[in-house]
Amino acid sequence: MTLRADYEQHGAVVVRGVLSPEEVSMVTDAIEANLNDLSPRAKRASADGDGSFIEDFCSWQRIPQVEQVVHLPVLSQLAAELMGSQQVRFFHDHMLVKEPGTSQRTPWHHDIPYYNVEGRQNVSMWIPVDPVPRVVSLEFLSGSHHGPWYMPRTFLDEQAKWFPEGSLSELPVIEGDDPQVIGWELDLGDVVCFHMQTLHTAAGNPGPLRRRALSLRFLGDDMVHAPRQWTTSPEFPGLASRLPAGAEMNDPLFPLLQL
Questions:
Q1: Which of 32, 60, 110, 192 is the most exposed place for a label (fewest CB within 10 A)?
Q2: C-alpha to C-alpha distances, 117 to 3, 168, 219, nearest whole angstrom
């Protein structure tokens, strides 16, 4: 089975040794630069007194180290292969750092209901810069990208901020021993790639290692703007006045990448 066929079937794959040690160092520098210069979008995604889980979004235009990673051809070429796309447009960056001693889980969810885009040709790349044991790695429900949307909720207090209560089905109960749940132990240079509609989760991080990752989102040929009546995550203020519904994401916020 080809890599793209595997991606189409499962909605998530691991690609081993994508990045060289030098490129992993670039990603590490990008994450640390972001940690040292958090944006107004940054948030603590763990409860008070529960370690530290820090997220930040859309830093590539203000942090050169992040922009450098965004433009790595090895990543855009991999995105084109997985999506089966002639072009690759960058969507946004997302830094996620779970320090040792953080018990907060990332609950089961899929990303597309939070976003302002529609289409099938997309991929998110989760790039760790610390070895990730299987027990704290991302997990996915294989094939769920072919299924329906489920109610998006806030991670800490489970509020329905994006859709009215009852307007979407609630997530089914997914047990850890479900044979459809897939995930991998990760080493430096490995990249986890997943569809924006694939259900995924992650455990806390009891330690001893940090769990630092930079996630990059890419859009393919059929992805278009889908203005929402709710505040998307991340939000792109003013975009709806520049791009009509159904338009290609042709805006300086979403540059085409070299292949």
A1: 32
A2: 25, 18, 9
Q: How far is CA 253 from CA 48, 59, 186, 249, in A?
A: 34, 11, 31, 9
Q: Whole-angstrom Cα distance, residue 174 to residue 162? A: 22
Rounded distance between C-alpha atoms, residue 224 and residue 105, angstroms: 31
Summarised one tens digit per residue, pLDDT across range 143-162 is 999 988 887 776 655 665 56
Q: Which residue in this structure is represented by tokens 């089961």?
A: 108
Neighbours of 222 (CB within 10 A): 14
Contacts of 112 (CB under 8 A, 6+ apart): 149, 196, 197
**pLDDT value at position 233?**
86
Q: With helix as H, strand as E and coil as C, how does 233-256 read?
A: CCCCCCHHHHCCCCCECCCCCCCE
What lies within 8 Å, CB to CB, of 65 at 6+ separation is 26, 29, 30, 33, 34
Span 82-98, pLDDT tens digits: 999 999 999 999 999 99
Closest CA to 111 of 168, 59, 150: 150
DSSP 216: E
Q: Residue 27: which of 186, 142, 180 has the closest Cα?
A: 186
Q: Which fold has domain 3-224?
A: Jelly Rolls (2.60.120)
* SS3 call for 32: helix
